[in-house]
Amino acid sequence: MSVDKTRENRLRRMARRQGLELQKSRRRDPRALDYGGYQLTDRESSSLVFGEIAGTAFGASLDDIEAFLLGPRVDRHPARAVSSGQGRAGVVVEQVAVPQWASDLLLHEPGQADVLVLPQRVRDGRGEYGIDDLMGVKELRAAGIRADWAHAEPEDRTFISEYSADVAVFVTLFVAQSLAQEGVVEVARWLLGRVRQVLTGRTDHKAATPLVIEVDRVELEENRRVIEGLRVTGYDERVVEVVKTVLQGGPAEK
Question: pLDDT at residue 150 above 50?
Answer without folding.
Answer: yes
